[in-house]
Amino acid sequence: MHRTIALVAALAAALIWAIVAAVPPTPRGADAPAVAFSAARAFADIEALSRTPRPIGSDGHARGIAYLSARLRTLGAEVSEQPVPLDRKTLDRLGKWSGRTETAVTGRNLIGLFPGRDGSKPALLLMAHHDSVWGSPGAADDAMGVAAALEVARALRVQGRTERDVILLFTDSEELGLNGAKAFFGDGAPPHPLAAHVGAIVNMEARGAAGRANMFETGSGNGEMMRLYAERVARPATNSLAVLIYDLMPNYTDYTVAKRKGIPGFNLATLDRAFAYHSPLATPAVVDPGSVQDMGDQALALAAALAFAPELPARSDNAAFADLLGRMTIVYPAAAGWGLLIVSSALVGAAWWRRRPALRTVGGAAVLVAAILLHGALLLTVYNAVSGSGDANYYDRLAALPRLETVAGLLVAALLLLLPLFRRTDPRMVAIGPAMALMWVGLLTGGAIVAVIPLALLAMAAAFFLPADDGEAPTAAILLLLLAATAVQATQPTAGPLLQWPLLLGAVALAGRAWLPRGAALALTATCAAAGVGHLLTQAHFIFLGIGAELPAVMIVLLFAAMPLLLPLLPERTPRWIPAAALAAALAITLWVRLDPIAPSVAVYSQAEGGKKTKG
Fold first, then answer.
1. What's the CA gap between 383 and 437, in Å, rounded?
2. What is the pLDDT of residues 256-267, one digit of tens each?
3. β partners of residue 332
4. Name one GO molecular function term (predicted).
């Protein structure tokens, strides 16, 4: 009974942790101090820009440029324009939108220069794109970014003359292939004269109209830049895993062009309410003012730190980092992850020396842990296939994200609650079932699930020789996590926090259960579980928004990291109707997605591009 109470308390605290981290700040009104960012002031620009769509060459596009030119002059900027030539491929894409043959359309970058005290120093560039896709008002993508940049520039002006020049670049034709950014930075053509003057960039984007403004991308050699982020941003939303994942994914924004030129910077974007992405529904009404405030607060903090600094941060080794509760950012050299592994290993070793479990028993528990993970990967893969989201249009998958994320959460919960059933099952059946199923799924689809086949085969073979004693499952789970975290540290050290932080907490709890009285050990375990699972829930939400609809089995990595924290708190027996109800609810939502494949967003970009994903 005590374990059940501790589990419920830990999960409740973890959920509160995740909610606190994921909720944007309260938007500030027009009466906010002049030196601060105000979402209400920024919203006036969002509404003015988003009355009509702004695809390149349209009347709305021309009105948007005229409006922004006037706004930049009102702020005191030296305003200029840069022509953005479009090649035949881009014109053909534009023709798909307009329904006519486009022959003589030219884009227009808008540039606002605010001179600083020393024009010889590298400038700060605030960047967003002013065009939208055909048929979409683009209130989030990217009127939100444009409006945030204008409000940041206004606040900087109030704070005094900056140490270096500040440039506002509103690029054109981003939606057609980053043409404005390519023209400015000289990708395939001579760059704009100001391009060589840029020393750091803050880019503002959107793939959704709500949620936290995630700082998901930096330039290479980001150690000093991330220390600046940690010092100046009061409400952070970032982690180094996101930076790594984005580098590995075939996505892009305007900052991608500058990053290839070696210019350091930060990239901010919102992801929630993705149903409005490239959609007629992307009106100011769907944009969360709190998200605008979040983007603006982070952008202003970074811009002020860079614009008034005597020197820009020097390039240094990439850092490992993540925010805690959305209230602080922990940053350290990626190599320091080895120190976390050493401390975790010492704690696990102390617990092992105290308890001295039998190796064969721990090995059997490892089979059980592997079987749970394999079942989870199978469940998530099968349910996703039933939902049809894997084959659906990219924009339909985005619209279904909240439902798909709920399905993943229900399946993971059901899996853990089914552990008592695993205890009473022949371990060979526990391992063989998902192993064989995953093998067939992998062979038939040729998908990423093939990567787990060796694990499936290993678990299947081990099940014939080792006892499935779940009493040592927490120890087995933390040993497996230690091995995985070590492999990650050796290959992709900036991804270390995802596994190393829960590992450290799990090791503290394991040592506590070995050396402390039962009551104190249970309290310590629940506390560690609350912190570790809360952090993982936050990461799971952002990861799922990024790639979960296409690869939901990635949630198993989060479950893997959480198992050393949760397994010691699971009750001895669970009524079967609870996991059964979770599985049934997940199936009902899955069928809802399947039977409602056309997203209400009616994504206009998708209609023109044949359903292909075109940018991140």
1. 13
2. 999 999 999 999
3. 320
4. metalloexopeptidase activity
